[in-house]
Amino acid sequence: CYTNDTALRVLVCFNNSMPAQYRLVICCSLPCSDAQHIATATNPLPAAFSDLLPHFLVEPDDVYIVKNKPVTLTCRSTPATQIYFKCNGEWVHQDDHMIERTVDPATGLPVMQVKIDISRQQVEKIFGLEDFWCQCVAWSTSGTQKSQKAYVRIAYLRKNFEKEPLGKEVALDQEVILHCQPPEGIPPAEVEWLKNEDLIDPVSDTNYYITIDHSLIIKQARLADTANYTCVAKNIVARRKSSSATVIVYVNGGWSTWTGWSACSATCGRGWQKRSRSCTNPTPLNGGTFCEGQNVQKSACTTTCPAVDGGWTEWSKWSACGADCTMWRSRECTQPVPGTGGKDCQGLDLQSQNCTSELCPQTKHIMNDLRTISAASGPEDVALYVGIVAVVLCLTLLLIVVVLVYRRKKEGLDADVADSSILTTGFQPVGIKPAKPENSHLLTIQPDLTTTTTSYQGSLRSRHDATGKFPVSNGPLLDPLPNGQHTLHNGKLPTDPADFMTRLSTQSYFKSLPRDTANTSYGTFNFLGGRLTIPNTGISLLIPPEAIPRGKIYEIYLTVQRKEDLRLPLAGCQTLLSPIVSCGPPGVVLTRPVIISMDHCSDANLDNWAIKLKKQSYEGSWEDVLQVGEELPSDPYYCQLEAETCRVFTEQLGRFMLVGESLSMAAAKRLKLVLFAPVCCTTLEYSIRVYCMDDTQDVLKEVMQLEKQLGGRLIDEPQVLLFKDSYHNLRLSIHDMPRAHWRSKLLAGYQEIPFYHIWNGFQRSLHCTFTLERLSLNTCDLMCRLCVWQVEGEGQSFSIDFNVAKDSRPVDADLLGLDNSAPALAGPSAFQIPYLIRQKICSSLDAPCPHGADWRLLAQRLQLDRHLSFFASKASPTSVILDLWEAQHFHSGNLNQLAAVMAQIGKQEAMIFLVTDGEC
Fold first, then answer.
1. pLDDT value at position 432?
2. pLDDT digits (tens, 9 = 90+) for 705-744
């Protein structure tokens, strides 16, 4: 290039591998000689290193953007002529680079460092596509090199924990697990645990262990571990704390050793001595149970007395002169009385003397003769009495022999009659068969037990062939019954209930069975099945047809256990939700599941509960056999949880209960609140009892029976309260009482029932008593309001308004909804659906239908389609569906509705409902 008077040389330097916008153009307004010099200086690399590729001394690392602060990425390379950043595949503008050039003093190579800043807005522009990344590219005269990718992420930490630790009550030395799932965050949060706000260091205290999933494990709970535990999550953004979980380590009381026996209370002869022990080994702490049993024992004792010789008292005064001309005086050997081997008094205790100077000799002779006659007649009278007694004994023995012979002949005749007529009754109890609804084709069919596959020949208990019986002599089962002694009369077992319970309790497995027959039902069943019911408890056992193998006869019982009779293995947040039901004997062979129905008191929301079915093993330990909602069709147990009832399918009899563990504080148990008061009141004091019990029929029945014994009356309709797992107590208070006539003797403003007394479900007849006092006997009208509520939770109130003198209602028996059905029903009378009709329904619906008109549609119409996988695992799905329908509708079943469902399915052409009586 030339100007007017000066020649300019323009030097253009570029690299074809660079984008066009980065090619450098250097214009120099210098003489040609100077420009040549600068062109030579632009390549400072020594000749020995001119062919080296650049290598990175510093590469960009992953970084996080905290809040709105930008982050800086750094890249350093040698030897390098240029370095530029590329982010998400696009070059960063050259103006955004901060460049620094130096020379390595050791090698003389040029070192180039470049930095760029990345803002939050840049990263958010590609939100949802992929992570934001950057890398740098370095050039030398020999080529280029790329660094590693550095990812830029926006850091955050959510506020709410995925899972927070829950408080627990645990026994001493028990393992404790506190679960914690930190909030979502980038980078992932680190977790640490605080104990009463102090950091837990598992290294210094090896009793603590933090798992890889952030749970805290206390290996062996100590008293010092009673504290509030908090899970802390933190990252570079924030630090979050969970709600505190209170761990209470309780100590159950233990008896100390007995003290020595005290000295006998009597210094001479029979007395008492005692010994004692205290509940201090260890002392119960933090709500632990008190020692069971007596703390004092008494025992009879006898102290050897010293020998005492008898001594005479003073002579009495002389008597008046008698007809025999004699007067008398006496003395007694009572001063002291001879004892403990002492000698009797020596001498006469009676003295006589003539009081008329021997003037009555004839009278004296007569008296002597009378004494002689009296002495001679004694032995004859004794012989006469002995003879009379011997005759009476002989007659009594003869009468007993006659009675025994007569009874034995009569028993043999009854057994023969029972065996020959048992099948003609069809197991039909007298007066128990359900009434026939009108206009139902289903009920026109009565099964004939002597035809086709339903025939059953012979008596229920074979007198000679015992091969078909269940081998009850082996294992923990009942002792074999004597041949022909127990047969079924009209569907009922004639065995004495007390005798039946006595036989059960003699077996080792049944030691804890209750002996009260009011809570036990039993019966004898064969392949036709039947039903056991404990009246007014909501507990029943359905034995479907064909559940008992043909040819087998089982004597089966059903009973409800008292909670205090068993040691239940509950810990932490676990609670008993149902009665403890026993059915057996265990070990009987069943070919299809039976159905146990029992009440439960949970809110039936499985999102808030982990409900498990527990079964007691033969050794006495409790095992989890299934978790409700997570059953597998292949399991031997299955559970259908309804709003207030649980149906358990099982092929193994035994002892069962439902146990729940709350997953959140929203989990709630249903409590039934019932108010009772005395029937009559003759004093100024008047008491109101408020029962707070699990909402199950068996507990209500127990309270009603207790109040009937106490002479109580129901004073208001029962109410239901949802009691939540919030660790808050239940409070009861009385209000709006007319102070001019009544006053409360309660010193505090309210009464409280501790949370754990209600939650564990062990307490029987848990109640509070409000003692009121009327100021005058003429005051009979009581009006007030009684409130029951959980602290920081729901509540109920009762408006009390009645006359304490005129209202003499007893305990309201209608509250139980009395169950008038027989406790044991055998054969067809136990079912709504006739046996032959049932067989036809199963054969019609079990086979798959291309249009879906099979058992699946039946389950859907009966609103049982959520159990399809369970039904499908059975040989006859329709039969299991009908079993469940029978269990649900024994008292309220409507065969017309079932017939309508079958008509909707379109199976009336299968002759299910049009079978005539003759065909049956």
1. 34
2. 888 888 888 888 899 999 988 778 899 999 888 888 888 8
Task: Give 500's pLDDT tier (boundaries 50, 70, 90).
Answer: low
Q: Which pLDDT belongs to residue 639?
A: 92
CA 780, 783, 788, 792 dihedral sign is: negative
CA dist 519 and 536 (Å) reads 10
* Pair 110, 45: CB distance under 8 Å: yes
Domain boundaries, the chain: 55-154, 156-250, 254-303, 518-664, 668-809, 832-919
pLDDT at residue number 563: 75
Whether 781 shows a pLDDT value over 50: the answer reads yes
Residues 6+ apart with CB under 8 A from 865: 856, 859
Say if residue 524 is exposed, middle or buried (CB neighbours under 10 Å; 0-12, 13-18, 19+): buried
Alpha helices, DSSP H, located in 422-529:
497-505
Strand, helix or coil for residue 314: coil
- Residue among 509, 605, 628, 625 at smallest CA distance from 559: 509
- CATH topology (fold) of 832-919: Death Domain, Fas (1.10.533)
Q: What is the helix (H) or strand (E) element at residue 403, kind and residue range?
A: helix 361-421
55-154 matches 668-809 in fold: yes
Euclidean distance between CA atoms 70 and 763, whole angstroms: 63
Give residues with Cβ within 8 angstroms of 114, minimum separation 6: 74, 75, 76, 83, 84, 85, 97, 98, 99, 100, 136
- pLDDT digits over 597-618, tens only? 999 999 888 888 889 999 988 7
Q: pLDDT band at residue 47, thresholds of 50, 70 and 90?
A: low
Number of Cβ atoms within 10 Å of the Cβ of 541: 26
Does 2.60.40.2660 match the CATH number of domain 668-809? yes
Q: For the structural domain made of 254-303, what CATH number should be given?
A: 2.20.100.10
**Two structure tokens written together for 154:** 């926006």
Instruction: Please state, in angstroms and rounded to a whole number, the distance separating the CA atoms of residues 654 and 617.
Output: 8
Annotate 533-550 with DSSP letters as a single string: EETTTTEEEEE-TTSSPT
Residue 478 in tokens: 């009942």
Under CATH, which number does the domain 55-154 receive? Answer: 2.60.40.10
Write out pLDDT tens, residues 814-833.
555 556 678 899 988 889 88
Q: Which residue has the higher pLDDT, 379 or 74?
A: 74
Look at 191-200, 429-438, 633-642 and tell me which has the smallest mean pLDDT. Answer: 429-438
Contact 554, 548 (CB under 8 A): yes
Which pLDDT value is given to residue 492? 40
Question: Is CATH 2.60.40.10 correct for 156-250?
Answer: yes
Q: Residues 30, 9: contact at Cβ < 8 Å?
A: yes
Q: How far apart are CA 798 and CA 796, in angstroms?
A: 7
**CATH, domain range 518-664:** 2.60.220.30
Burial label for 389, CB within 10 Å (0-12, 13-18, 19+), is exposed
Q: What is the pLDDT of residue 787?
A: 92
DSSP 43-58: ----GGGTTPPPEEEE
Query: How many Å is the Cα radius of gyration of the chain?
Result: 48
> Which sign does the torsion angle of CA 735, 736, 739, 742 carry?
negative
In angstroms, the CA 125 to CA 114 distance is 24
Enter the pTM of the model: 0.50
- Better-predicted residue by pLDDT, 915 or 335: 335
Cβ atoms of residues 246 and 225 within 8 Å? no
Q: String of b and e for 462-476 (b: at least 16 CB within 10 Å)?
A: beeeeeebbebeeee
**Closest alpha carbon to 581 in 704, 698, 670:** 698
Contacts of 135 (CB under 8 A, 6+ apart): 60, 85, 86, 146, 147, 148, 149, 150
CA 199 to chain centre: 35
Do residues 721 and 731 touch, judged by C-beta distance below 8 A?
Answer: no
